[in-house]
Write a structure and sequence with these properties.
With 126 residues, this protein is mostly helical. The protein contains six helices and no strands.
Length: 126
């Protein structure tokens, strides 16, 4: 699994929302205080966006939530990698959240996803 998959998907979502609003990379980058090249790199997944940047990007694009930028499904490469390690993905459905707050179940799902990602990353480092 490539760590860059999630950033590529995030970047594609940013680019799609920017294009839908008929904004140029230069216009959005100016709102963010970034160079156009940095935004271009974020949109292609070559540069990793920090969490605070994702909030700023959502604001610059006038989105209701950062969740509009975050992929609702795990990248297919993650699913393939997990199948290879564990035999299956456990039949988990894609997580999609709406609104400004998370329910207790949604919060638990996010926490589990983050915990698993951190465990997977630690395993790869060994």
């Amino acid at each position: 699994m490539s760590d860059t998959d999630i950033y590529r998907l995030l970047g594609r979502n940013i680019a799609a929302h920017r294009a839908a609003r008929k904004l140029t990379q230069a216009q959005v980058a100016e709102r963010l205080g970034l160079t156009r090249a940095s935004l271009a790199n974020i949109e292609t997944g070559r540069q990793r966006a920090m969490l605070h940047h994702i909030y700023e990007i959502a604001d610059a694009l006038e989105l209701e939530s950062i969740l509009d930028l975050i992929p609702s499904r795990r990248p297919k490469s993650w699913q393939s990698a997990r199948r290879g390690k564990q035999g299956s993905t456990g039949g988990q459905a894609a997580m999609k959240f709406t609104g400004d707050t998370l329910t207790a179940v949604e919060k638990a799902q996010v926490e589990n996803l983050i915990s698993q990602a951190l465990r997977d990353k630690a395993e790869r480092r060994r």
